[in-house]
Design goal:
Multidrug-efflux Transporter Regulator, Chain: A, Domain 2; 3 domains; 3-stranded antiparallel sheet; elongated
Length: about 290
């Protein structure tokens, strides 16, 4: 201990007081590599810190007050000034996006809990359309809600590229939900692209489709009940209200859902603006 004092080092207790943190927090930061002591006594295991480490200790504590995960705290404190600031900005943008989504979800839930669901559903006009039999190439994946948008874009891109060798795309691509996709439930979801040449599609699938759980199937002719939504409404939880609106309409009309729900993407997603119609929320009915 005398050597430590001679070196100008502080015991963990003295350093904790200077940094305005608990010794427990300092031990945790040490284990995670966020704030390593200047010296650890091999015989006693006592930790010693330099006074100059207090600034980093306080930075870690402040970042934690933002509910920043420890792994991301580590990225920030190890980065230089501009890079650290950019990492903080990126994290906070994610927080604000999450809070905005939660705010919208709260409004959605408030409407349901207060018995105003019918008012919420009235914003969506539901119609029916007859769809012919289609040959589709599909890709299936178990995915949680957070991963879903990226997977939809990637999987439909792969399938549309494959469709070029299968006579081309014959109708709007769509995604079928065979079970709920949420923060806790992982589906599965199935991306589908209608194609013209069934034989070519089956040959492609046999040769190259296995890596992505791809298959070819024939979607029978049928009727869909659907509502059209904008790009902004595709975001969660607005899209939940659209699904519920179609389900309520089906029940009111005395119809029966005849298959899993789906999202039909008929527009260029990248070119569309927030208020442009891009997607039909649909259920097969009989």
């Amino acid at each position: 201990m005398d050597d430590a004092r001679d070196d100008g080092l502080l015991t963990i207790g003295a350093f904790a007081e200077r940094a305005r943190l608990s010794a427990k927090a300092l031990r945790l930061y040490d284990r995670l590599g966020l704030l390593v002591p200047a010296r650890v006594d091999e015989a006693t295991g006592y930790r010693y810190y330099r006074a100059g480490q207090a600034e980093r200790a306080r930075l870690v504590a402040l970042l934690r007050q933002l509910d920043m995960p420890l792994a991301r705290v580590a990225e920030v404190v190890r980065a230089d000034g501009p890079r650290a600031s950019a990492l903080l900005d990126a994290y906070w943008a994610e927080v604000e996006a999450r809070v905005a989504g939660q705010r919208t979800l709260t409004e959605h839930l408030r409407g349901r809990l207060s018995g105003r669901s019918s008012e919420m559903y009235a914003r969506f006009e539901v119609e029916t359309v007859d769809v012919p039999e289609q040959v589709v190439i599909t890709e299936t994946r178990h995915t949680l809600a957070a991963e879903l948008p990226a997977w939809i874009g990637a999987s439909l891109g792969r399938l549309e590229e494959a469709a070029r060798g299968c006579g081309g795309v014959t109708a709007a691509p769509y995604v079928v939900y065979h079970a709920e996709v949420s923060m806790e439930s992982d589906g599965p979801a199935e991306s589908c692209v209608p194609v013209a040449d069934e034989a070519a599609a089956r040959a492609w699938c046999e040769e190259r489709g296995r890596a992505w759980q791809t298959r070819v199937r024939v979607e029978p002719a049928g009727r869909l009940a659907y509502t059209r939504i904008t790009k902004a409404q595709v975001a969660h939880p607005q899209i939940l209200t659209a699904f519920e609106a179609v389900e309520a309409w089906i029940a009111d009309q005395g119809l029966t859902a005849a298959g899993p729900c789906r999202e039909v993407y008929f527009a260029d997603w990248e070119a569309a603006g927030p208020e442009d119609p891009v997607c039909d929320i649909a259920f097969p009915v009989r």
